[in-house]
């Protein structure tokens, strides 16, 4: 688990040149929106109502980011819009992961030694963190896919909803099982482990400051420590879809039906 923890620490240390005040703003805003402890920030927060409004909606319910909110954010952020959106994702989801680790009794994210002014947040999140988590294999592929699809619906990511991971399909995942994710408490196709995982997913997404101890105990009764850690990071990796959803860039690659892909051994998706 050393590499994922190291990457989480590096995410907390991000404070890119020229974006320190905006980074402080989104860190404070996202935490206030979720009731969690904000990530530390370098310097005072910027006074930018458009960025604040965008970050608040991003954290609260990204699927409801309006066209007006998006346009105002893009106008204010300018050429840094993508980087600021990624920083917003970090501000939003790293505290959720820490809350999950806390309630599961797993080691906390280590503190950073100092501020990182030089690393590109886009590269760190999308090209390093996401594939590192994608390459983890403690969880079985069907549970991994069930968790991914729950996040896809909760964040209303059109691309994610259109995808089906091939290893999970080969391991017994079916469309009827996946349809049952929306009614998992009464499903006859999803087992008790799936239900425990999905309750945890929902808690991380909607009530991260109030994850019930019995819910966490239920998860730990079905999953080992490495599995529970991977599941927690899977929720964050999947939630990177919030970046595309918030910017209106989540269109599916197919016009109808679903598209099969494979999650490679390097954690990168392989299409076609």
Can you put this structure into words, describing what you see?
This protein has 272 residues and is mostly helical. Helices cover 60% and strands 4% of the residues. It has a 3-stranded mixed beta sheet with strand order 1-2-3. Helix 5 (81-104) runs antiparallel to helix 13 (225-239).
Key structural traits:
3 strands; 272 residues; mainly alpha; single chain; globular; 2 domains; 60% helix; Carboxymuconolactone decarboxylase; AhpD-like; three-stranded mixed beta sheet; 4% strand
User: Order of strands across the widest beta sheet?
Assistant: 1-2-3
State the share of residues found in helices, binned by percent. Answer: 55-70%
Total count of domains: 2
**Which structural class best describes the helix and strand composition?**
mainly alpha
Largest sheet: 3 strands, mixed
User: How does the overall form come out from the CA principal axes?
Assistant: globular
Task: Output the number of helix runs.
Answer: 14
Q: Calculate the terminal CA-CA distance, rounded to whole Å.
A: 31 Å
Could you tell me the strand content as a percent range? Answer: under 5%
Radius of gyration: 18 Å
**Can you count the beta strands?**
3
SSE topology string: HHHHHHHHEHHHHHHEE
Low-confidence sequence ranges: none
Mean pLDDT rating: 97
Protein name: Carboxymuconolactone decarboxylase
């Amino acid at each position: 688990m050393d590499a994922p923890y190291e990457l989480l620490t590096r995410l907390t240390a991000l404070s890119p040149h020229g974006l320190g005040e905006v980074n402080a703003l989104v860190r404070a805003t996202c935490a206030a929106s979720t009731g969690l402890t904000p990530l530390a920030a370098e310097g005072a927060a910027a006074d930018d109502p458009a960025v604040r409004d965008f970050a608040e909606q991003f954290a609260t319910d990204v699927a409801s980011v309006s066209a007006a909110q998006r346009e105002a954010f893009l106008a204010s952020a300018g050429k840094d819009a993508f980087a600021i959106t990624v920083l917003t994702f970090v501000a939003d989801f790293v505290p959720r992961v820490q809350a999950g680790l806390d309630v599961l009794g797993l080691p906390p994210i280590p503190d950073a030694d100092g501020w990182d002014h030089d690393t590109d947040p886009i590269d760190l999140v999308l090209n390093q963190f996401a594939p590192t988590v994608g390459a983890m294999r403690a969880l079985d592929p069907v549970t991994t896919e069930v968790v991914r699809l729950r996040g896809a619906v909760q964040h209303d990511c059109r691309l994610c909803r259109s995808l089906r991971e091939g290893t999970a399909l080969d391991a017994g995942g079916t469309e009827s099982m996946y349809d049952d994710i929306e009614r998992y408490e009464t499903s006859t196709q999803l087992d008790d482990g799936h239900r425990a995982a999905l309750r945890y997913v929902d808690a991380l997404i909607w009530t991260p400051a109030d994850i019930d101890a019995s819910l966490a105990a239920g998860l730990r009764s079905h999953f080992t420590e490495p599995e529970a850690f991977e599941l927690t990071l899977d929720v964050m990796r999947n939630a990177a879809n919030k970046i595309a959803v918030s910017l209106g860039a989540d269109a599916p690659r197919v016009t109808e039906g679903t598209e099969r892909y494979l999650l490679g051994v390097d954690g990168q998706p392989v299409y076609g």
